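Researcher: Please predict.
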Amino acid sequence: MAAELSVDNLLSCAVIKMKIGELAKHANLNPSAIRYYEKLGLLPAPARTSGQRRYSAESLDRVLLIRFAGEMGFSLPDVKTFLSGIRENAPVGPRWRKLAERKIIEMRRVIARAQRLEKLMRGLSHCHCSSLHECVRRLAISENLSFVARNSPRKRKSANSQPV
């Protein structure tokens, strides 16, 4: 059940301390995710009233940021680094910049790999190999799979006449 994140809902959260289920509902998560974030140190341990966790609006901000960062491909350790030592009114621009710069480099590697794989898949979609051996030999020209031919048992056997 998704909770609508209206300004009125968020303002009411700022005044009233939320129980774990309320926080989870506002963030569209299960309460177990909130406890997990606490366990990892992404979310500080909340105050307790009669043994029940009570969360502030800042906790909702953190949880929403954790979700956003996850959707952008950041790992939980990345998010923990981002959130460590941050104060409520501290500027976050420099932290985002540092994290984003690292993520851009990672994304460029992923994109380059995806482009190589797409090229390989296009080639495989037109495969006319007459045998598995021929296929493996031809795949050796692929940058991604060049190790296949070098480690092929047939090649090793013919090179040193040892059983595989």
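Model: The first helix runs from residue 7 to 15.
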